[in-house]
Amino acid sequence: MADIGNASLILALIFSVYSAVVSIANTRRGSISLAASARNALIATFVLFTLAIEIMLYALITNDFDIKLVAIHSNEDMPLIYKLTALYSDKAGSLMFWGWLISIFSMVLAFQKRKTSIEMTRSATGILAAILAFFLILITIGLDVFEKSPLTVTDGLGQTYQHVAMVMHPLLLFLGFAGFAIVFACILGALVLGKRGSEWIGGIRRWALFSWCTLGIANLVGAWWAWDVGNWGGYWAWDPVENAGLMPWLLGTALVHSIAIHRKRGYLKHWYIALAIFTFIFTLLSPFITHGGLEESPLHGFDNSPVPPYILTFIIIVLAGSLGVIVWRRRSLKDEHKPLSFISREGAFLLTNLVLVIIVLIVFLGTIIPGVAEYLGNEEVAINRGFFDKSAGPVLLALVFFMGICPLLGWRKSSPGMFRRNALFPFAASSVAAIVVLISGVGNWYALAAFVCGFPFFTIMQEWTRGTRARHRTKGEYALKAFVSLIWKNRPRYGGFIVHIGIILITIGVIGSSLHSDNSLVNLMWAGGGVLLLGAIIAFWPDRKHVQLVMRQN
Amino acid sequence: MVVAVSVILLIIGILFVAYPLFRPLKRKDEERETIKQLHVKQSTIHSILEELEMDYEMGHISDEEYRELDAKYKAELN
User: Fold this and answer.
1) If you average pLDDT over every residue of chain A, what do you get?
2) Which of A71, A192, A281, A358 is the most exposed place for a label (fewest CB within 10 A)?
3) What is the ipTM of this complex?
């Protein structure tokens, strides 16, 4: 079976290369027959990829320990769900799964009836086929996913990985990564055709939102797992592998907002194209980091993987190719709109995007510097979480505050009077919240947090109230119907505020856990022996394998 | 066995990929596509117009700007 799986992958590679070459060669000619042939080759790639995945899953379910992936990551006693998810516990298996998701999404794009077009599908086909060819090279040449095993039986998946969060986290992460590959292919495909993608922006926006949501949830689920399995230093340790998932999400955040502005106002065209390219590149950077391209992750990652040079080469090809297309099609990128005023909602969005890019740069530098220093033969450079907390933390907080500013500004140009009028309620309400926190004696930092988080929260409340009133006035709808219609009929904006409230809640959680935590190192010498720590008596029970809170001091 | 299965898969794949190269071209698909594109564009403009009206009602956009954009999108719609 393993040999048939391998043969399927090699055939899939052949068809994906054919699809990529024919699509790219057909760009100028625009032959319908060649485009259909390239599309069929992409379908053949998907079918063969699926066959290989089926074979691997069958091997996992039936405990076929002749395959190394099965022998290392699974055993007979493991529950079925973990046998299946053992696929993405492996360095080759995870890449196989990711590539397969891209092939599924390519099919969805090819057969999508709404909000897309044959033209867009054709232009994106070649790029997606090239991306699939890269993944197939990784799992057939770089790594051998169906490698035969000299082992008989091993321990299987580690206990910490047999957790519901570890079923969901990689799945959501790869869904997000695969989705951003589609966004990249569509936007670059539009550019190749000399179009701006404005005609297809609705379809692209849906893919970007889907990818952004799944990747965001993946990061949260990963944080939940880190917290739940313990001994990780909390839910977020700024580990290179964690950062690898965070950076594309941050860029994706900027991308989603740029697409929204471009769709509505025609601005930020260059931004959304650049962000689509770099978001995709950062998704590729993730396996580069996870497979030890920079350094072995202190917490998790794959050891001794041969794929980082392949990934780095592909990143360079993507970057050079994208820049080449941008230079080639620079005329179609010329802005025909009036110059953008910085004191406007468009300007504020641009500033928000810049802030997001700055955060990504900080996290990127903090992540790569130790590896680069080691590569250059310098002394060990250790960048701990303090660097990230102190540098990225305040900028992230400023970003949350900015979420409250943008909706208060008018489009194209905003007068100071209009801004003052709009900002009065959120400013006053968040100031009151901060004063209440200050008076209650919780602490100065909490008061600042109440102001920073309160400002965007009260802005959203004000926008929802005003919007509901406006609908009530103009459409004659009663309050509840007006509110529901407001959100439903203007989902990109008023629905988006729901996500902003989620971000505010996460920020409050992060601030609370950061300000209210303390660390002490103690030795619990004997079973059941208690120690007074941070105002609580804590005991360790070896038979239960956990530390127990016995009594909290009042 | 493996070689036989691989050859069968390869032949089926080649036939499937080559099929469009030998069948007559269908311009109908292109026409259908153009109509679909127009529908997509119309629906996008309708939703933008609705958002624009909302922005105007809430004072996020000036009278002049509203009239200019409203006329522009309605012209595109026609």
Assistant:
1) 84
2) A358
3) 0.74
Instruction: For residue A88, tell me if it sits in a domain.
Output: yes
- Tell me how close the Cα of B73 comes to any Cα of chain A, in angstroms: 11
- Which of B12, B60, B65 to mutate against chain A (most A CBs within 10 Å)? B60
Looking at the complex, report in whole angstroms how far the Cα of residue A468 sits from the nearest Cα belonging to chain B: 10
Cα separations in angstroms, A506 against A400, A461, A500:
10, 18, 10
Residue A237 counted as domain residue: yes
Half-sphere exposure of A47 (CA within 13 A, CB side): 14
Could you read off the pLDDT of A82-107 as tens digits, one per residue?
989 888 888 899 999 999 999 999 99
Q: In what order do the strands lie in the sheet with A530-533?
A: A530-533, A536-541, A546-552
Instruction: State the Cα–Cα distance between residues A86 and A75, nearest whole angstrom.
Output: 10
Domain that holds residue B32: 2-77
Residue A204: band (very low, low, confident or very high) from pLDDT cuts 50, 70, 90: confident
Among A390, A414, A438, residue at a domain's last position: A414
A473 lies in the same domain as A407: no
What residues of B are in contact with residue A467 (Cβ under 8 Å)? Answer: 54, 58
Q: Which of A205, A345, A411, A485 to mutate to test the interface with B (most CBs of B within 10 A)?
A: A411
The answer to whether A182 touches A109, Cβ cutoff 8 Å, is yes
How far B23 CA sits from the closest chain A CA (Å)? 8
* pLDDT for A148: 86
Query: Taking CA atoms, what residue in A is nearest to B26?
Result: A32
Q: Provide the residue range defining the domain that includes A350.
A: 167-414
Predicted confidence band of residue A11 (pLDDT cuts 50, 70, 90):
very high
Q: Are residues A135 and A90 in the same domain?
A: yes
The answer to whether residue B4 neighbours chain A at the CB level (below 8 Å) is no
Beta bridge partners of A541: A546
Q: Are residues A184 and A304 in the same domain?
A: yes
Question: Domain count of chain A?
Answer: 4
Which pLDDT score is estimated for A212? 95
B72 interfacial to chain A (CB closer than 8 Å)? no
Do A392 and A510 reside in the same domain of the chain?
no
- Do A84 and A208 belong together in one domain? no
Q: Collect all residues with Cβ–Cβ distance below 8 Å to A408 and sequence separation of at least 6.
A: A419, A422, A423, A426, A459
Q: Tell me which chain B residue has its CA closest to the CA of residue A113.
A: B36
State whether B2 and A41 contact (CB < 8 Å): no
Count of structural domains, chain B? 1
Q: Among residues 35-54 of chain B, which lie with CB inside 8 Å of chain A? A: 36-37, 40-41, 43-44, 47-48, 50-51, 53-54
Q: How far off is chain A from B30, nearest CA to CA, in Å?
A: 8
Within 8 A of B17 by CB-CB distance, chain A residues are 15, 18, 37, 40-41, 44
* DSSP 3-state of A478: coil
DSSP one-letter string for A117-164: -HHHHHHHHHHHHHHHHHHHHIIIIIS-TT-B-S-S----S-GGG-SH
- Name, in order, each residue with C-beta under 8 angstroms of A301's C-beta and a sequence gap of 6 or more: A240, A241, A289, A290, A291, A292
Residue A344 sits at φ, ψ, to 5 deg, of -155, 170
Confidence tier at A431 by pLDDT (50, 70, 90): very high
Closest Cα in chain A to B59 = A410
A159 within some domain: no
Q: Could you tell me if A220 and A342 lie in one domain?
A: yes
Same domain, A335 and A221: yes
